[in-house]
Design a protein that fits this description.
By secondary structure, this protein is an alpha+beta fold. The protein has a domain of 116 residues: VC0467-like. It is 19% helix and 29% strand. A hairpin with a 3-residue loop joins strand 2 and strand 3. It is globular and about 45 Å long.
Length: 191
């Protein structure tokens, strides 16, 4: 009898070059929730959107100083109009609106959390994601077995310090893989 794989929550998924789904081409995904019964939820951390955070905040009735607002990212293809905030939450306790992904990384779908971060009432770095990535029970495990994804430990510097266009390479290097050594068995870049 085989053992159940360990939960992937709080890990990074790194798309292999052969994964040609345009939603996940060279994607790095922060896994927020994972269980064999309910599947998985994650946010792509390296897909910038051409949307300004101050515009979203204005729609929410918030007026903040535009200096240093983080870039808005596409979290995945599911519910692209729903927002999620990933933020450093040292000292923040999880509640019904905040999920602890790691000891110091939180995820929230609450507009109030976003507003508090933008106003500086919650300390720490953050990103707003529109949409999310989801997998049915067993689907992500099968994709990993099919070599579509590599799994890496969470490195918060990849989320908050590495430039967006370098996150895939940085995530691979965090587990000792040089991008040039990967073989692309797929049909190439998505069209």
């Amino acid at each position: 009898m085989s053992e159940a794989p360990p939960p992937l929550a709080g890990k990074l998924l790194i798309a292999m070059p052969g994964l040609v789904d345009p939603n996940f081409w060279h994607a790095v995904v922060l896994v927020g929730v994972h269980s064999s019964e309910e599947g998985a939820f994650g946010l792509v951390i390296n897909r910038p959107l051409n949307v300004e955070l101050n515009e979203i905040l204005a729609e929410l009735g918030e007026s903040v100083d535009e200096g240093q607002l983080p870039q808005v990212l596409a979290g995945g293809p599911v519910e692209p109009n729903h927002g999620f905030v990933v933020f450093e939450g040292r000292g923040q306790e999880p509640d019904e609106t905040v999920l602890a992904v790691a000891s110091d990384i939180m995820v929230s779908g609450s507009t109030e959390t976003l507003a508090k971060l933008a106003r500086g009432r919650l300390a720490g770095r953050y990103h707003l994601f529109l949409g999310y990535s989801g997998w049915h029970p067993g689907q992500l495990e099968q994709e990993i077995e099919d070599n579509s994804w590599l799994v890496a430990p969470l490195d918060t510097s990849i989320i908050f310090e590495v430039p967006i266009e370098e996150r895939w390479t940085a995530a691979l290097r965090s587990i000792g893989v040089e991008p040039g050594t990967l073989v692309d068995l797929g049909s190439g870049a998505p069209t």
